[in-house]
Amino acid sequence: MAPESTITPYRGGSLATHPEKVEHRGAQRRKEPRDRPRPVGVRAFWKSLGPGIVTGAADDDPSGIATYSVAGAQFGSALLWTALFTWPLMVAVQAMCARVGMVTGRGIAGALRHKFPRPVLLVAAIALFTANTINLGADLTGMADASELLTGINSHVWVVVLGVGIAVATIRLRYATLARVLKWLALSLAAYVVTALYVGPDWPVVARDTFVPRIPARGGAWATVVAILGTTISPYLFFWQASQEVEEEKAIGRRRVADRVGAEPYEINTRKIDITIGAFFSNAAMFFIILATALTLHRAGRTNPQTSREVAEALAPIAGRFASLLYTVGLLGTGALAIPTLAGSGAYAFAEIFGWRQGIDEPYNRAPGFYAMFISSVAIGVALDFANVNAVAALYWTAVINGVLAPFLLVGILIAASDRQLMQGQPSSRLGRAVVGLTALLMFGAAVGMFL
Predict the structure, then answer these.
(1) What whole-number distance in Å separates Cα of residue 447 and Cα of residue 401?
(2) Confidence check: pLDDT of 169 > 80
């Protein structure tokens, strides 16, 4: 398998054999006519958005929806504050990952190769692939259950149809087309806003529970907060965000790493806005999922739903068929968006560690290793459904893996993003580093709390 480019490990010295040439070519590429123009006007600005919105929306995958639904069913609106609390944390983390991708011209694993030995990164990649694949299987099961509710066709049939369909579409479509499709799929998150508004909240109570953090006295509340934190700030999003930046660069002709080095300030600022908007919609959907289930299931005493399907079925007699339908449609939309993200992030990680050619725009025969990892993840996810693996248990182990992996990855990303030489004189801001450092500490605490 031909490598995309030669990588020389970073050991405190230069980034490459001739770093001055890398920097020179990186600066020159901004002057070339094929480069992306500065967006002018609302329409041009909207077209420049995408990676941040897609990554944010992918955070609300079916397994995440199940976590938020359980939080609302068990504790009512008491945990609404977590949606507000995690928003700036998610923005800071994803903005740092985006900056790494934009400035170094590589994904997260490619950048970390300059700071850490390959065996360490390989352990992280295996953990990432395992967690992503289990999560993907749970998402496919959730989507298939939703499809069965809508059509009456057995969910096992839908698992195969959805898995194969999404995999083929991701492999066959060009990146620009796939990015547009994923960006519009993010609108499916609106289903949860409409569902909550349709039920009718008590706004003074909602305001209190949003702005006054509290942990309910009931057992399991701390564990639920840990699950929400782990679901919202997930390792696969770190890799996907940075790799999408690389794909964006490739799509406008910057095929070599040297051509992608460095970023204009307006490009970084535009992506920050993109990520802020994406994270806002992601956390708004999380907020309204918790609210909708608090107003329906919790109020009706249905406090122990185990899956998103149980939530959808329970909504119908309580809140009406319309609310149940909206919830189900949202599951399908977010699942279709999340599965390429889950399978793709693991594939990008392995490809960068081993120097394989990679990218959604590459034909299969030019990037066999990358696509083999992608297809394997989807295939194993489909097999998990036929093996009747307990979805709740599977998601628990996903949370365990992510809970342990996330803080270590955040520390690695923080080290890389703070290195002025690796970041070509464009390291993350002090405020960004402080917030990501705080997030890493919180994730370490969450990991310890999860085991205790």
Answers:
(1) 9
(2) yes
Residue-wise pLDDT for 36-87, tens only, equals 555 555 565 556 566 777 777 677 777 788 888 888 988 999 999 999 999 9
Q: Which two tokens stand for residue 238?
A: 């770190």
> How far from the centroid of its chain's Cα atoms is residue 42's Cα?
26
pLDDT at 133 over 90: yes
Query: What secondary structure letter does DSSP report for 15?
Result: S
Give me the pLDDT at residue 26, please: 39
303: left (phi over 0), alpha (psi -120 to 50) or beta: alpha
Which pair of structure tokens corresponds to residue 196? 């909550």
Q: What are phi and psi of 54, to 5 degrees?
A: -65, -45
Please tell me the distance from the alpha carbon of residue 390 to that of residue 89, in angstroms, as a whole number: 31
> Mean pLDDT over all residues of the chain?
81
Overall size of the chain counted in residues: 452
Reported as type and span, the H/E element at residue 426 is none
Contact 196, 295 (CB under 8 A): yes
| Distance in angstroms (rounded) separating the CA atoms of residues 245 and 248 | 5
**Distance (Å, rounded) from C-alpha 43 to C-alpha 331?**
29
Say if CB 385 and CB 156 are below 8 A apart.
yes
Q: What is the pTM of this model?
A: 0.81
Round to whole Å and give the CA distance between 340 and 346: 10
- What is the separation of C-alpha 451 from the centre of its chain, rounded to a whole number of angstroms? 24
Pick from 108, 373, 346: nearest CA to 238: 108
Q: In this structure, what token pair is assigned to residue 426?
A: 């464009």
Picking from 414, 433, 61, 449, the residue whose alpha carbon sits closest to that of residue 232 is 61
**pLDDT reported for residue 93:** 94
Q: Residue 433 and residue 104: Cα distance in Å, rounded? A: 17
Mean pLDDT, residues 9-15 = 37
Residues 47, 41, 100, 14, CA torsion sign: positive
Among 19-23, 92-96, 287-291, 295-299, whose mean pLDDT is lowest? 19-23
Write out the two tokens for 448: 């310890």
As a whole number of angstroms, the distance between CA 182 and CA 236 comes to 16
Task: State the Rg of the chain over Cα.
Answer: 21
User: Is the pLDDT higher at 10 or at 449?
Assistant: 449
Give the angle subtended at the CA of 49 by the CAs of 254 and 285, to the nearest 5°: 135
Pick from 221, 220, 239: which is nearest to 128 by CA?
239
